[in-house]
Amino acid sequence: MNKNEIEDELRPDYDLQKLQVRKLGPGRKRFCDTVRLEPDVIAAFPNAEAVNEALRYLIEVAKRTNSLTQHSSGLR
Q1: pLDDT, position 2
Q2: How far apart are CA 63 and CA 57, in angstroms?
Q3: How many CB atoms lie within 10 A of CB 51?
Q4: Any idea where the domains of the chain sit in the sequence?
Q5: In angstroms, rounded to a whole number, what is the distance separating the alpha carbons of residues 28 and 73?
Q6: Would you tell me how many other CB atoms lie within 10 Å of the CB of residue 54?
Q7: How far is CA 9 from CA 6, 15, 37, in A?
Q8: DSSP 8-class letter at 10
Q9: What pLDDT, on a 0 to 100 scale, did the predictor assign at position 34?
Q10: Does pTM surpass 0.70?
Q11: Is 66 helix (H, G, I), strand (E, B) or coil?
Q12: Which residues contact 7 (CB under 8 A, 6 or more apart)?
């Protein structure tokens, strides 16, 4: 193989024209805080802010439910 020949290891179904490159802002120093959502979840939320709001609500409900469970189990 000469210099001009490149071995293509990408899957044929990858559309390189649709790939997006995003610069990391000052608040994002690494990629480990990225989460992949399934298409049905993406369809339910218009943006990242909506996802975060829903998750924060779920966390609050879980905390309250856990707190109620602990209190009620002590009464028995």
Answers
A1: 58
A2: 10
A3: 16
A4: 44-75
A5: 42
A6: 13
A7: 9, 13, 25
A8: S
A9: 76
A10: no
A11: helix
A12: 1
Token pair belonging to 71: 């209190």
Burial 19-30 (b: 16+ CB within 10 A, else e): eeeeeeeeeeee
Q: Position of tokens 């071995």?
A: 7
Q: Write the CA distances from 3 to 6, 7, 9, 38, integer angstroms.
A: 7, 10, 16, 40
Q: How far apart are CA 51 and CA 46, in angstroms?
A: 8
Residue whose token pair is 């990629």: 31
- Report the C-alpha dihedral over residues 24, 33, 60, 57, rounded to 10 degrees: 60
Walk along the chain (76 residues) in steps of 10 and give the mean pLDDT of each run.
62 73 66 79 91 94 83 59
Q: Copy the structure tokens of residue 2.
A: 């000469």
- The reported pLDDT for the residue numbered 70 is 73
